[in-house]
Amino acid sequence: MNDKFNRWHRICLISYFSLLMTVTVWYFIISPPQYILSTIFSLMYVAILLAPMFFLIKKRPHVYAWSSYIMLIYFSHAIIETWANDLHRYFAIAELVSSSVYFISATICAGYIKKSK
Questions:
Q1: What angle, 0 to 180 degrees and rounded to 10, lies between the N-to-C axes of helices 3-25 and 63-84?
Q2: Please, what is the average pLDDT of the chain?
Q3: Which of 110, 109, 107, 100 is nearest to 15 (CA)?
Q4: Domains: count for the chain
Q5: Residue 2 has what pLDDT?
Q6: Which of 3, 26, 55, 107 sits at 20 to 30 Å (Cα–Cα) from 84?
Q7: Structural domain that includes position 16
Q8: In whole angstroms, what is the distance from residue 67 CA to residue 12 CA?
């Protein structure tokens, strides 16, 4: 791949890992779940985010397309939390920025892969 792709891939990885850290810290350290069902939902929320990790690190071509759709879940959640939750608004804004940057960079990476074929 070319130099621009590597730059966007790096941005994609940075935003992915910042989103992973933000969500994990927010849901398991800052505001841990109190009930078993809340724990299960929090674990599922992080597990969905862990799905593309291996493929992102290996630079697999199709991961950018399907993982950008997953980011729409986190983008929607961040919009709702930013609007509704005064207590954790800064974490929601961090989630919003990270998911937006990931979506944009993954879309650009998918475009570079499509052009190279």
A1: 40
A2: 92
A3: 100
A4: 1
A5: 85
A6: 107
A7: 3-116
A8: 11
The tokens of 83 are what?
């609007």
Of the candidates 109, 102, 103, the one whose C-alpha atom is nearest the C-alpha of residue 2 is 109
Question: Using one digit for the tens of pLDDT, what is the confidence trace for 24-76?
Answer: 999 999 989 899 999 999 999 999 999 999 999 988 888 999 999 999 999 99
Amino acid identity of residue 4, one-letter, is K
Closest CA to 109 of 61, 50, 48: 61
- What tokens does 85 get? 């939750």
From CA 92, how far away is CA 68, in angstroms rounded? 18
Q: Which residue has the tokens 């590597």?
A: 6
CB atoms under 10 Å from CB of 83, counted, come to 10
What number of residues does the chain have?
117
Establish how many alpha carbons lie within 13 A of residue 84's alpha carbon, considering only the half-sphere containing its beta carbon: 6
Q: In this structure, what DSSP letter does residue 115 have?
A: H
Cα(52)–Cα(102) distance, integer angstroms: 12
Question: Tokens 């998918």 identify what position?
Answer: 110
**Block residue for tokens 């190279």:** 116
